[in-house]
Amino acid sequence: MQLFSSLFLASAATLAVALVPVALEDRSIRSSCTTPDGKGTCQKTSNCKTQGFNLAGHCPHDANDVQCCVKKTCSTSSGSGICLNTGDGCSGGAFISGSCPGDSSIKCCVKGAKPPPPTHCTGPAIVAAAESQKGIPYVFGGGGCNGKSKGGYDCSGLTQYSVCTACHFTIPRTAQTQYHSSLGKHLPRAQAQAGDMLFWATNGDCKNRVAHVGIFVRKGIMVNAAHTGTLVREQAIWTSSGGESICPDAVRFWK
CA geometry: angle at 245 spanning 223 and 159, to 5°? Predict the structure, then answer.
């Protein structure tokens, strides 16, 4: 009986110790908090990602995953939104600077907004990004914003990589969708400058059957991932080959 009582008391004591952190954390989650950037509530960081921004050091018994969640709306020239931690992303929109408290890690997430191109988003920067990949093999379906994939690039994978690298925003992935993207500006091909996109379409049907894209470098020359068996390279701009014809306009994604 004495042994049973001792075991019971030891187990109860262990359980009580184990419950203390849980109780403290629960109490923290239910409390309000005040930061230099506004008032909020203590929440698990994962619960605040789409509601507001997390600030550490303002909750009692502050656990690593319990921080002060501050909810603030914001207004920008691109529309109204919510201040979020940039590391948590802005699904369906873009981060706009200048209307949220705190440092550059907190920005206004505006749904439906397009990210403003950085000041270094230039045509030559797009060309330089593409040229940096010269010598990498053509691979159908390869490449994108994060660089080569499947061992290489296809034509639109290279152009998407080049714009992402130079301008820090994402254009569509395929040649057809890049040609029709609202992110780009159409202009007569004769006015193309370094960094503009040139497109080719099956039977010249640029509305429905765009099949290839390259990047204008200088008069008569482009850089592209052409087809299986070739490497990313500079080559002469061609007008018609294999049933594909060049489209009459170029598309500019830089400002």
Answer: 30
pTM of the model as a whole: 0.57
Cα Rg for the chain, rounded, in angstroms?
27
Rounded CA-CA distance 154/140 in Å is 5
DSSP state of 195: T
| 20, amino acid identity | V
The predicted-structure confidence for 17-64, as pLDDT tens digits, reads as follows 444 444 444 556 778 899 988 899 998 888 888 889 988 888 876 667
The encoded tokens of residue 30 equal 């239910």
Angstrom CA distances, 47 to 76, 101, 199, 241, stand at 25, 20, 45, 55
**Mean pLDDT for the stretch of residues 180-194:** 96
**What residue ranges in the chain does DSSP mark as E strands?**
32-35, 38-44, 53-55, 66-70, 73-76, 79-85, 93-96, 106-111, 185-188, 197-202, 210-218, 221-224, 233-236, 240-241, 244-246, 249-252
Q: Which of 112-121, 127-136, 226-235 has the lowest mean pLDDT?
A: 112-121
| Helix (H/G/I), strand (E/B), else coil: 126 | helix
